[in-house]
Amino acid sequence: MPDVDQVNMRKVEWIILTEDNMDEKIAELKAGGAALAIFGLTAQGYENLGLNFSDIRALVQQQQQIIVAYDNYYKASVQALDAAETQRLQEEVADTVTKSEGSKWNPFD
């Protein structure tokens, strides 16, 4: 999974319309052949947009930390199971060797 800071974001071009430049900017857009659509935000709406992006970034970072924790837990579980299986096999071999040292060992017993 790519790091959030490494994701290539698409370019967004903001054009700020004011009473003083509105006619000029609309004429530029029309001259460039762009379809004209105007989206507006209040100052509070713009602030909320920024806060929402901040909240999303925090949530993504939290989810990344949870994924890392689960990954570490899984790796540790696999290592513990492997170690337990290795120990069980070693004990089984040692038990077999101990039995065979005391008497003639018959593999068909």
What does the model show?
The chain is an all-alpha fold and 109 residues long. The chain has a domain at 62-99. It contains 2 helices and no strands. The protein has helices at residues 22-31, 43-102.
Spell out the key features of this protein.
109 residues; 2 helices; mainly alpha; single chain; 0% strand
SSE map:
Blueprint: H1 22-31, H2 43-102
Radius of gyration: 34 Å
Low-confidence stretches: none
Portion of residues in beta strands equals under 5%
Largest sheet: none
Number of strands: 0
Number of helices in the DSSP assignment: 2
Order of helices and strands: HH
**Percent range for helical residues?**
55-70%
The general outline is rod-shaped
Structural class: mainly alpha
Instruction: Give the overall pLDDT as a whole number.
Output: 86
The end-to-end span amounts to: 55 Å
What's a quick, concise take on this entry?
With 109 residues, this protein is mainly alpha-helical.
